[in-house]
Amino acid sequence: MPDSPTDLRSAFRSGRVTPTAGLAPGFAQTNLIAVPQDWAYDVLLFTQRNPKPCPVLDVGDAGSRTTMLAPGADITTDLPLYRVWKDGELADETTDVSSLWRDDLVAFHIGCSFTFEHPVAAAGVPLRHVEQGSNVPMYVTDRECRPAGRVSGPMVVSMRPVPEHQVALAAAISARMPAVHGGPVHIGDPAELGIADLEAPDFGDPVNFQPGDVPMFWACGVTPQAAVMASRLPFAITHAPGYMLITDTPDSEYVLEVPDAR
User: Which positions make up the signal peptide (predicted)?
Assistant: First the structure.
């Protein structure tokens, strides 16, 4: 039986470090970005103007280490790996940011495409990164997000190779879950997104294609980290790409009901 979200968060708190794709199937996962309160409005506006890569599921009060998505969780210890940013530069990767947390930090919990992977896999679509035990590959594109105040930056995408005959199925299933990025932003030639080499992702690991696979690209919640770098935020704490918060919220809560056409 798969580990529960509570069990996994406990394991992460105790030092287990692993990408979270494929873990706790049936429960939503989220990206994390926490910024000083005097930057929070600009970040909130950025997410609202760019809902495809930055769909917000919860925003904490200043200083809060909790989220309604996982009651009882501590967001400073219960993710497997964090990144700490200073003046737009990566300052550290660590498994615990409790000693770095500040009373003025506002946490944004952003929908993650790992959430729609469970229904996609349940429909019989293979997930190559899960099969290969690797992190999903992510790429910075040449598509600029709509800026907001002091915050700007390019869109980041995650990529999954999908058998050609199942591309439409994967697109349709993910499209019913806009709160976790929804349908793909591009299918096929990566050069159309400004991606030069699929073997060299900006985040995560390269993944092996099988014969007949087609690359599918979804907007990614690492986009705020690209904005942190581009906008040189003075301080931020984020998840490490692919190392998410596993929530107690069923992924079914984010599936849009299709109206009965009869």
Answer: none
